Amino acid sequence: MELHELTIKQASEKLARKEISSVELTQAHLSRIKQLEPKLHAFLYVAEREALDGAKRADQLIAEDENFLLTGIPYAVKDNILVSGMKTTAASKILENFVAPYEATVIKRLGGIGSVVLGKTNLDEFALGSSTENSAFGPTFNPYDTTKVPGGSSGGSAAAVASGEAIFALGTDTGGSIRQPASFCGVVGLKPTFGRVSRYGLVGIGSSLDQAGVLGKTVEDAFLVLQQMAGKDESDSTCLPKELPDYSKFLDRGVKGLKVGLPKEYFAEGIEPEVKKLVEAAAKKLQEQGAEISEMSMSNASLPLATYHLILPVEISSNLSRYDGIRYGLSAAGENLSEVYYKSRSSGFGSESKRRIMIGTYASSAGYFDAYYKKAKQVQTLIKQEFIDAFTKYDLLLTPTTPTTAFSIGEKAADPLAMYLADILTVAANISGVPAISIPAGLSQGLPVGVQLIAAHFREEILLQAGHALEKALNFKLEPNL
Questions:
Q1: pLDDT band at 236 (very low <50, low <70, confident <90, very high)
Q2: Which run of H or E residues covers position 396?
Q3: Is pLDDT of 380 > 90?
Q4: Is the backbone of residue 126 left (phi > 0), alpha (psi -120 to 50) or beta?
Q5: Is 331 an annotated catalytic residue?
Q6: One of 130, 177, 198, 344 is an active-site residue; which one?
Q7: 44 three-state secondary structure
Q8: What ranges do the domains of the chain cover?
Q9: Cα-atom radius of gyration of the chain, to the nearest Å?
């Protein structure tokens, strides 16, 4: 097995036995990046010098027997998460030369045990998109078919993991931005409960929706990373002081007796037949292992997407107001302050960012606030309550992650509404704040399909139980076409 094919667990065992060094492992991934980047464009910045320095420090920790499961493991970081001393562009011209002055909490926690940052990955500008075509620095391409999108907005992170450029990657998920690209690229994508992981050091767009998470090769890998980066953080008031379980204790518990609901609205018209078939086959695998599978209904299933596209733009309008050409980032010359604002924002933001800012400003303006944003927040409460009620009867919900496999580059770029529908099955978990995971379910005409598992608030361990059991039952390994 090549070094770039290793999972976290496999690489960690080899490092602990001194069969390989972190420097060797990191160099293997840097070589893989050099080989594949002309095809994929998953990275915006490759931190070769920093990575090798970090790997040397990790080898020292291992030599002193101070290593952890993630010590010496090279990983990639979505370029809207701050790594001190590295550029953080959020794939936008307005932040093209911004160098992070401090570290995100999730990076600090991984760095504290000697994990190695390989570089920053591509995304839709400010994480606004579902294809990674909205990046100001060019699109990322799907490792299974480079004429297809990798999904978004964490498309660079998903492509990096799928192609073996990184063992795991960090992403952010505001409406499906980890799970949707995970599905399109055939990897595992984990979005924790809102409040489980610190958002400190993330470039914020939707303050009530954004959540840092993991893209990995296996369910176990994703939870090894979550175990390290989750937990209370005094720097983030939205990070809740909930007890963090030892996830390793749930790995092999199996699914016998777990009640799994299949919301019929998530399998309705619009789902590609082969996607539906593979997801239903995954449900049957859980049933064969003792899970109790039954169809159920989510009466508010049609509401999350519209609710999301009112709440998020309002929060975007507020959050992106800080990029004014004065405080940091791009600053265009003007004869007065208003002209500096206008020119900086006009030239710095891409079309999708401008679209969302305008929608959000309108929806939150005087005379329209009650009709739009306030109403959307009221509907959000209804959606959240329906999920709370569902989890009094079920341990898990199982759905497709996406209605289709990866679509072609440019296919939906000129149709924002069609692009927004790519997240129709994932946004509900963000609106309600519950944890969810996407797991590869197979291939449809050579392209990956993901199955989504959703659990109650702060019950990520149920996702681990069922996800790991499903992986073992499906027992296949997806190989990208590279």
A1: very high
A2: strand 396-400
A3: yes
A4: left
A5: no
A6: 177
A7: strand
A8: 3-253+436-474
A9: 21
